[in-house]
Amino acid sequence: MTDSTFKALLLRQDEAGKTCATIEQLTTADLPDEQVLIRVEYSSLNYKDGLAVSGTGKIVLNWPMVPGIDLVGTVVDGGESDYQAGDQVVLTGWSVGEKYWGGYSQFQRVRPEWLVPLAQNLTGLQAMAIGTAGLTAMLCVMALEEGGVKPDSGTVVVSGAAGGVGSVAVALLANLGYRVAAITGRESTHTYLKQLGASQILSREEMAARPRPLEKSRWAGAIDTVGGELLSRLLAESDYGATVAACGLAGDYKLPSTVMPFILRNVRLQGVDSVMCPVARRLQAWNRLASELPQEMLTAINQVVSLEQIPERADAIIKGQVQGRVVVDLQL
Length: 332
Prior knowledge:
By secondary structure, the protein is an alpha/beta fold.
């Protein structure tokens, strides 16, 4: 292995500070000095990856960087860890693709504590159709359940519904028996969202206006991937005792709200993080995804691209032009 070359996408900065993405030939001697060597089968393209590859956001902390915050593959050498050659494993989060080299490489070395076993009834392709976005969606659903939101509680609304997190969230909630309202800025996604199980479609424009401190209650729960004014509206429109799971800030990191929904309607705002999520909770979420996310939905929400196509798709994802999930096939 040490003498064989393989391809990887590397990000470098030029003298002007511009991010440059190139496909390069590496050997395992070029990889980080971590315990577990993995033959990477698939990765995925998330919004954060789009920011990193395009240089739009300050995502990359060390240069050069192999981006890709997700990967699935087979252990080649487990070092002194509990993983053995042949084990199939999944990695999401842990600042991989930002601080540490990530999934856009046909081989990668990683820390064993970042890994979880691939669920028995998932393929590698399916795992990356889920990826960080799907894991985050499942963690949001779990947050709603823990907040007391049940299928008979009322409608659950999902913002950014045609994106990666939103798509999986809509499919999961619908499969679990919830009535789902989907917020999207693209009319072209309406049919897609209805196929995933949304029973109501709301335009981003109608939800974007700044709300009053309290609006007419509409939602038993919410999963928000956007932040900003939209999150403020979801809070103002929440039912008494509702839970809102906030996991993204694609719209804005600020929250122009008041305490009134929390005090007068007993609303819970639950932050959801998938990057540093403890392994035990990850395993719980992955096991539920494997059994509760309809398999046919994984086909409906994903598109497969090669390593060479990543820069083009990265630009598209940060412009809001990507529907569902983008899986990167490292063998193409």
